[in-house]
User: Fold this.
Amino acid sequence: MWLNMKNVLKNISGAIYSSLFVFGFVSLILTISTPLHAALDQSHGLKPSVVTSAPTSPTSSAQAATEANPANKVVLVVGDSLSAAYGLTQEQGWVSLLQDVLAQHANPDLSEITLINASISGETTDGGLARLDRLLQQHQPTDVLIELGGNDGLQGHSIKKLKANLKAMIEQSLAADTHVALQQMQIPTNYGARYNKMFINAFAHVATETQIPIVPFFLTDIALQPELMQNDGIHPTAEAQPIIAQFMLDNWIIPLVLR
Assistant:
């Protein structure tokens, strides 16, 4: 009986938490105009993959392309569920769709860019930092996008630790002779105004300190359109993915990767 009561209480508290989370996220969207993000991750991780149209070996494909033409760029995306196509197939995700756009682009410099999606649902900066060295050695990227931190905020991690992890990832990537960009992240307002502000500002502070560019949050406009969000109110639908792909082409690939 006691075990049954514990299960009931656990289910009730989970439902209340979910309701408060969604309410807080919607409140954040309606009250501020800066990029908004909270990646509520509930699935298991995904293995890194090269997003290409050819059915070749992931690692060998990227390395062979770079060795054949040193001008080719291999771009590593280290992210959470927003880049891991949460609730969708990998082919429906924005990273895969962006690779398709690049492969078919008239600009040969864009068509020769290879994207490697090393994003995992539920990932924090702790996990990203732990995996990064292996990813850099395995894929030898020319560019790295760090799209992490949302789950740190959702779990109430120390802002000092968040900044330290992001800085360490950036410095490790720079030491591997890559160009690095940091994705702006957000959390809901129900985490408290003080923590929320500190969290938002952490990304700009780290980017400024390490002298790397910061990419605006790609759900700023999408999150205001319920039809483009999944039922959890956090993750974008399949219909939103092409919009994200275009946004990242315009705000990340062309200005920061194409160079």
Notes: The two ends are 65 Å apart (CA to CA). The longest strand covers residues 73-79.
